[in-house]
Amino acid sequence: MKFLEYQAKEVFAAAGIPTPQGKVAATAGEARAIAEELGGAVVVKAQVPIGGRGKAGGVAVVKSAAEAEKEAQRILSMEIRGYPVDEVLIEKAADIKAEFYLGVTVDRARQAPVLIVSSAGGMDIEEVAATHPDKVAKVWIDPLIGLRPFQVKEACYRAQVPPELIQEMSGFIEKVYRVFKEQDAILVEINPLALLGSGELIALDGKMETDDNARFRHPDAKGVDEQAEHPLEQRAKELGLSYVKLDGEVGIVGNGAGLVMTTLDMIQRHGGKAANFLDIGGGAKAEVVKNGLSLILSDPDVKSILINVFGGITRCDEVAKGLLSVIQEMEVHVPIVVRLAGTRAEEGRALLAESHLATAESFQEAAKKAVELARA
Amino acid sequence: MKFLEYQAKEVFAAAGIPTPQGKVAATAGEARAIAEELGGAVVVKAQVPIGGRGKAGGVAVVKSAAEAEKEAQRILSMEIRGYPVDEVLIEKAADIKAEFYLGVTVDRARQAPVLIVSSAGGMDIEEVAATHPDKVAKVWIDPLIGLRPFQVKEACYRAQVPPELIQEMSGFIEKVYRVFKEQDAILVEINPLALLGSGELIALDGKMETDDNARFRHPDAKGVDEQAEHPLEQRAKELGLSYVKLDGEVGIVGNGAGLVMTTLDMIQRHGGKAANFLDIGGGAKAEVVKNGLSLILSDPDVKSILINVFGGITRCDEVAKGLLSVIQEMEVHVPIVVRLAGTRAEEGRALLAESHLATAESFQEAAKKAVELARA
Amino acid sequence: MSILVNNKTRLLVQGITGREGAFHTKQMLAYGTQVVAGVTPGKAGESVEGVPVYNTVREAVDKHGVNTSIIFVPPRFAADAALEAIDAGIELVVCITEWIPVHEMMEVTAYARAKGTRLVGPNCPGVISPGEALVGILPGGIFKPGPVGLVSRSGTLTYEVVNELTTRGIGQSTCVGIGGDPIIGTRFIDVLRLFEEDPQTEVIVMIGEIGGSDEEEAAEYIKTMKKPVVGFISGRTAPPGKRMGHAGAIISGNTGTAESKIRALTAANVPVADTINEIVDLVEQRLK
Amino acid sequence: MSILVNNKTRLLVQGITGREGAFHTKQMLAYGTQVVAGVTPGKAGESVEGVPVYNTVREAVDKHGVNTSIIFVPPRFAADAALEAIDAGIELVVCITEWIPVHEMMEVTAYARAKGTRLVGPNCPGVISPGEALVGILPGGIFKPGPVGLVSRSGTLTYEVVNELTTRGIGQSTCVGIGGDPIIGTRFIDVLRLFEEDPQTEVIVMIGEIGGSDEEEAAEYIKTMKKPVVGFISGRTAPPGKRMGHAGAIISGNTGTAESKIRALTAANVPVADTINEIVDLVEQRLK
């Protein structure tokens, strides 16, 4: 689950991490009222679950409440990389003396959290890491001992945090790491983490993404569902289906993520494009097949459907029977190609031959047929 | 640091562990008032930092406040294995359905905490472990992962905790383990942990001992200093000396715990008995030597003193000079034998030869001399 | 020979009384695997398909000399089950459960390394050494003993390849489903090392997919190997930033692309097949 | 040969700018130990006795190929320093600091085991291989190279024995002070194993004391050893329940008594000396 800036900052503030004074607004009028309350000189920021909003014009620094209203109006009418801006965050402008980068994320290759600190805050950290690796301190946290003072110190020293700031920065890092752990986050990022004229360290921006597998521990978490961008993805989520909307014309149903991905690749190989990714899992249970098929049939982009199932423990003849009974109940307005493989595949195909469904023996043949039918 | 029952229970209660209603009393009158408040039927328990008070008559179950007063009077006048009873804990009598044992301690050999649970509560756990090992579940906690649900379950199942109690017992164990960790305890023991008629689990007794090395983390901990039983030990503690009062007549000063222990052994080997253990540490600094010697000189049991110093990095001639200057300032009323060994031992002995101190070349000779002088 | 599991495997099933646990216990027994014990807390004394059930792993290990465990425990309790198996000193733990939180898996994999336990999975179909032992949920019927070692991040894709291999008369030494999660106990490189040492294995098939950099890491190792490896990468047409079913199958920024993986494998002289048939063609050529 | 430390030791001093750290750095350098770097957070760029100081262990390791570390850090920070050294992959860590909390030491020893680091101490005088390297606070002048391996829970008692050995012309291969705390990284059995394999060591002296059961555990191992071991146990007359200076020197209940240790050693055919002279007599007999 991704958190919008203001959502992340609410979590930060609850964990004792300093954040600027501010409030979120859904209208330009609200923005003006908040700016007035904050004293006029504020920052207006688009709340979208994606980076690069600054470059896209989604952030404005203004001197007055009237200006804040104007900018909020403009930003609220934007769409940033496909995301319409529904809310803006209005925050008191800060007196910034220096900017740092602070992030904690999961390193897949090392199978451990990695703490990243840099004195080159406010910039794209990947770019800084590439051009000035000495300015980016990466410290891996052994899950067996967790974050310890020595790692925090190492990160500060290597990032050249000024000596007089190390103690405060260490406390800041410890709090951020606690958020990372307690929220089951896979990413917490503060960029910039600013040193104010007052000497205080503060999270000027905030990004957080949490682990969906751990959602049961955080029933009240307030964030944005990342995979549900398309209405069909939203619907799939409700149905508990592993579905991704794509921009082609061949609807795909398969069992097993690897098999489905390979099916998409195969469609492309035969000159077509898949309209979706849909993994119905092992055994191809009737209800899941039905939900999956009706989802795909409701997609106006879909011109043909390829059902690609490998019968493993469940035999293909049983899979065929299940498929037939499901399809007979449905109103099917596009051609369907079924490919069965694995245990008792021939028997399965024989059963399907009596239906109006097209069958295919091989993966290639199935993909080719589905592409041809989509074009017909 | 050892905690008296009521002190341990205050810590338990703060950690959410159920404990009986009760208060501590220093006089029989207070005991009566508390018993009245609690409704008459109470338990009166001597508060001493040592086990076996029940067998010694330090616990009384009474039916009325008047009885409570009488028993408190009796118990407050007791001395249990050398400890005068200064306080009694008055607790509401409990309706006990079953008794369990629950303990967490540090296992030296395995270098890990060990959780001990038994259905044979109320009894001496070492005895139960010896006679009915199947009734005592010991589960070691790997410090790298800490206490996990599987270990709690394992302890419950192996201790034959009734299935309907496992969930509540698990929560109880988790809280006790948290106390063990958070208090830097080396022992937390609840015996008996009682199942009441109401179905509630409760800590009827409570024992805790914490790690003195971690005392800096617990500045407000309220317990009893274990090693300061004798007034001289109390004084040594104030002086920061590693001192143990023993029941012999030869005062011992040495550098290094192993060397001092061996000196005690050597005194006994020559027919004497040491009056104390005193390790002044490496280098034999003048102030430590002075404090140590004056402590020993203030012990009326001491009839002679053996100073046994090994000069390592600090040379023996320097040690001798230091010793001489310290001793010259003091009023010494018992004979002192000094044995110097190690770097420049001969030179050291030569320096001491000019003083009124007896010297010895060998360990054996020194011990023998000190014993003889004590008898003279 | 084979790797990881064989006729000396003495298997414990954690979560044996659950629907999946009980079903696959039956399948594994039918395949000939020595399933010696099961664990479900609170169900000690029961039995599943004749296999005795215990409350704790330690008890099962003490009584039955278990050397391998398979986990069918629900996601919220699976990491604890894995820690229990590792703590009890079991050599090989295969975790079938999916949806285990990432933070828990980081602890579990670190603990497994610390204690010298080999963990396979989570979110994997398990391991099979055809004709010897099945420790997983793979459909035993499609496998046959032979010289091909197979390691894969995907279950059904493995079955597709194996089905084709077996149909063409080519058997397998061991097939290892390492799982599709971002944090997994055993990675390509670990299995390749085992195959390299296994006398039965002559050719290795490695089925990767988008996401992470394990294929690239494996490619570096393959450069030092003596045995031929055939590669396959699924998800070539997957868009960046989208999780393709597997939690680990996602292209983030510039990492995890199919191109990068294919490039790395090609640089290690590994032919990367375009189709499943082609995988088997390449294997056939290398066996001759 | 010797064990643990030798002329290939490349030593890092953690807490090098402190009073003890600086003093013993000088002593170790004077003895000929290769002290290559020091660490004190915040003091990078300084130097102590010509040894460069760094902020972090990792930096020192990266720049100087450190393989051994010695810790003089104050008790509150010593466990963290040890974890830092272990995390950086240093092979041998000698912790001189005393008064480290028990809970922290349980974590540190477990982590050292997990990462394959050998930890000696805490609360120990360190290790010396006479003529090769001194990694500790032992008085180098009293040692001389030779065939006796010595392992001890006590510092000054070690010096007493070594002084007597050297005076009588008997040298030492390596002397290891394992420390007097209840939780220590390296125990008698670990050092005995190393001495058993060390070609230079011909006779081993083991100086135990009351408390714990490490001597009993060692006695079991000694039964399988080829080299002769001479024993000594201090604290025979210590009363139960009293800590005799060392945190670990305490008889609790029936465990940790001198009788139990002497009985165990005797059963392993280890002669237990009554005096320091007798230790050396016994060594002399076994060398001839």
- How big a fraction of the residues of chain C is strand? 15-25%
Element-by-element helix/strand order of chain C: EHEEEHEHEHEEEEHEHEHEHH
User: Low-confidence stretches of chain A at least 5 residues in length (pLDDT < 50)?
Assistant: none
Mean pLDDT of chain C: 96
Find the CATH topology of the largest domain in chain A: Rossmann fold
- Judging from the principal axes of the Cα atoms, what is the shape of chain A? elongated
Tally of strands of chain A: 19
Strand content of chain A: 25-35%
SS field, number of helical segments of chain C: 9
**Helix amount of chain A, in percent?**
25-40%
SSE-based structural type of chain A: alpha+beta
CATH superfamily of the largest domain in chain C: Succinyl-CoA synthetase domains
From the alpha carbons, calculate the radius of gyration of chain C and give it in angstroms. Answer: 18 Å
- End-to-end Cα distance of chain A, whole Å, is 41 Å
In DSSP terms, counting alpha (H) and pi (I) runs of 4 or more, how many helices of chain A? 12
Assembly type of the chains comes to heterotetramer
Whole-number tally of structural domains of chain A:
3
Helicity level of chain C: 25-40%
* Top CATH class of the largest domain in chain A: Alpha Beta
Explain the overall architecture:
The complex is a heterotetramer, with 2 copies of chain A (376 residues) and 2 copies of chain C (288 residues). Chain A folds into 3 domains: 21-92, 2-Layer Sandwich (Dna Ligase, domain 1); 96-217, ATP-grasp fold, B domain (D-amino Acid Aminotransferase, Chain A, domain 1), CATH 3.30.470.20; 231-375, Succinyl-CoA synthetase domains (Rossmann fold, 3-Layer(aba) Sandwich), CATH 3.40.50.261. In chain A, the strands form 5 sheets. In chain A, strands 1, 8, 9, 10, 11, 12 and 13 form a 7-stranded antiparallel beta sheet that branches. In chain A, strands 2-7-3-4 form a 4-stranded antiparallel beta sheet, covered by helices on one side. In chain A, strands 15-17-18-19 form a 4-stranded parallel beta sheet, sandwiched between helices. In chain A, a hairpin with a 2-residue loop joins β5 and β6 (83-84). The two termini of chain A are 41 Å apart. Chain A is elongated, with a radius of gyration of 26 Å. Chain A is 36% helix and 26% strand. In chain A, α2 (28-38) runs antiparallel to α3 (65-76), α5 packs across α6 (166-182) and α9 (286-297) packs across α10 (316-329). The longest helix of chain A has 17 residues, at 166-182. Chain A is built from 12 helices and 19 strands. With 376 residues, chain A is an alpha+beta fold. Chain C has 2 domains: 10-120, NAD(P)-binding Rossmann-like Domain (Rossmann fold), CATH 3.40.50; 139-287, Rossmann fold, CATH 3.40.50. In chain C, the strands form 2 sheets. In chain C, strands 3-4-2-1-5-6-7 form a 7-stranded mixed beta sheet, sandwiched between helices. The model of chain C has no long low-confidence stretch (mean pLDDT 96). In chain C, 64% of the residues are buried. Chain C has 9 helices and 13 strands. Helices cover 35% and strands 21% of the residues of chain C. The longest helix of chain C has 14 residues, at 102-115. The radius of gyration of chain C is 18 Å and the shape is globular. In chain C, α5 packs across α9 (276-287), α6 runs parallel beside α7 (214-222) and α7 (214-222) packs parallel to α8. Chain C is an alpha/beta fold and 288 residues long. Chains in contact: A-C, A-D, B-C, B-D, C-D.
